[in-house]
Amino acid sequence: xxxxxxxxxxxxxxxxxxxxxxxxxxxxxxxxxxxxxxxxxxxxxxxxxxxxxxxxxxxxxxxxxxxxxxxxxxxxxxxxxxxxxxxxxxxxxxxxxxxxxxxxxxxxxxxxxxxxxxxxxxxxxxxxxxxxxxxxxxxxxxxx
Length: 144
Hints:
With 144 residues, the protein is α/β, with parallel strands linked by helices. The protein contains six helices and five strands; from the N terminus they run E-H-E-H-E-H-E-H-E-H-H. It has helices spanning 14-26, 37-47, 63-73, 88-96, 109-131, 133-143; strands at 6-10, 30-34, 51-55, 78-83, 101-104. The chain has a five-stranded parallel sheet, with helices on both faces.
């Protein structure tokens, strides 16, 4: 497991957190799991995970509120919201407010892994490459 493949899982249901931990660890990710939005904010400040999987409906700070605060802490963090409701308005709101994707529960284990792997490769790795000093150096060389 590579420590740079860190994912924060936020869900108030212990069973969902446990299932996601198993699935994602088996796929080679380091998983940090918490049960509420406030703990998620603390982990974002402490560990700066590149990707967050977060439930929309949680007691206290819900997924939308927590995502808004996370993006203020680190505007580069990528958030995937999870919901048991396949409501188009809710999904649209999630994407408009900064989520890069959404997952509806219950989710298919294989589809979940495939989507997270694809997001990691296309969004996280691309974002890291765009910020890397190697890329900037290559661009300067190409433009000189």
